[in-house]
Amino acid sequence: STQPALTEPSNVLEGDSMDQDVESPVAIHQPKLPKQARDDLPRHVSRDRTKRKIQRYVRKDGKCNVHHGNVRETYRYLTDIFTTLVDLKWRFNLLIFVMVYTVTWLFFGMIWWLIAYIRGDMDHVEDPSWTPCVTNLNGFVSAFLFSIETETTIGYGYRVITDKCPEGIVLLLIQSVLGSIVNAFMVGCMFVKISQPKKRAETLVFSTHAVISMRDGKLCLMFRVGDLRNSHIVEASIRAKLIKSKQTSEGEFIPLNQTDINVGYYTGDDRLFLVSPLIISHEINQQSPFWEISKAQLPKEELEIVVILEGMVEATGMTCQARSSYITSEILWGYRFTPVLTLEDGFYEVDYNSFHETYETSTPSLSAKELAELASRAELPLSWSVSSKLNQHAELETEEEEKSPEEQTERNGDVANLENESKV
């Protein structure tokens, strides 16, 4: 019998950084990665060299483009039932709201009907000498109506519980307490859902593009934010994240790695007074993830900038968060934002028609690192001025030594004549 020959798998990780210690010297198996990690493998790892569309991590409207799958511990959602109900869509929330009240009314209506049936009140409906548990209760429908009147405290006065029914008194207490709990839970859930500040974020706008241009002699990444309402966001703050897959020096692949983008955290510029639209600026320096990215390299990068604006709603005091993102095709190199603020008669006016508009400006296409190297070279003669002077003196001495022999003879002759005249 012949054994099948071992063959190397076609999908083998390439590169020195992805070498692995394996027991078998014949085959190197590719590790099983999550779907997102497989889709976002770097170019030198993945064999698929075709250009693919960048998948957003956060959509332009601020919704996160992430779906949670294979969640086995679903009981965790029930442990926080209040948040679960608030997070449901409106149609499901209203359905649960109606069903909870209907079920409780039916449940207690059934109990009231059972009490009347067991006591024999149904057989003495027309008997004036009989004292029923609930007057004028002659069937399940009337028991159901009495349950609604009891829980909602309507009290029409036609059906009344008597003092000859202790079991009815106990049931009345239980339904009153449970009804109050159901009211507090469901009404509180609806109130929180109605007052959620998510809709407030709809009036917080971000520019459709981010721009890169020079500002105060430094290359900066900029985007614009604005508030459409007259009621302002209190304690507003802005932050930004760079979403980009990376590979460590040990060969570990980190999909959708998050890196902070400094938009003024150390200087306090990230805390905003958002009365009129503001341009948020990120200085591209050595600590910036864009330090080595030039204009030609930017379209080749697969990255996403997520911007997050947070603050308290002035009317309700609840925390509000608005999000947006920019991919490489939405970052314009060599552009600036068109001004939107003008001075009118006694007030400032914001023209939101120009909020997203940009105009082209003169901007070097080099990266910030290359610009810094050019600037350092330009400053080199100034910093070495003393050495330059010394070099100039050395060059003059060399020129004097290399002069022609005739000039030296003439000088020697002149010196000899002067010596003879002095002797005479």
TrEMBL record:
Compartment(s) where it occurs, according to its Swiss-Prot or TrEMBL record: Membrane
Annotated stretches, region: Disordered: 391-424
Bilayer disposition of the protein: Multi-pass membrane protein
InterPro entries: Ig_E-set, IRK_C, K_chnl_inward-rec_Kir, K_chnl_inward-rec_Kir3.2, K_chnl_inward-rec_Kir_cyto, Kir_TM
Protein name: G protein-activated inward rectifier potassium channel 2
Species of the source: Moschus moschiferus (Siberian musk deer)
UniProt catalytic activity: K(+)(in) = K(+)(out)
Gene, per the UniProt record: KCNJ6
Lineage top rank: taxon: Eukaryota
Keyword set, alphabetical order: Ion channel, Ion transport, Membrane, Phosphoprotein, Potassium, Potassium transport, Transmembrane, Transmembrane helix, Transport, Voltage-gated channel
Keyword Ion transport attached: yes
Subunit comment: Associates with KCNJ3/GIRK1 or KCNJ6/GIRK2 to form a G-protein-activated heteromultimer pore-forming unit. The resulting inward current is much larger.
GO cellular component, one term: I(KACh) inward rectifier potassium channel complex
Residue ranges of domain Potassium channel inwardly rectifying transmembrane in the record: 58-197
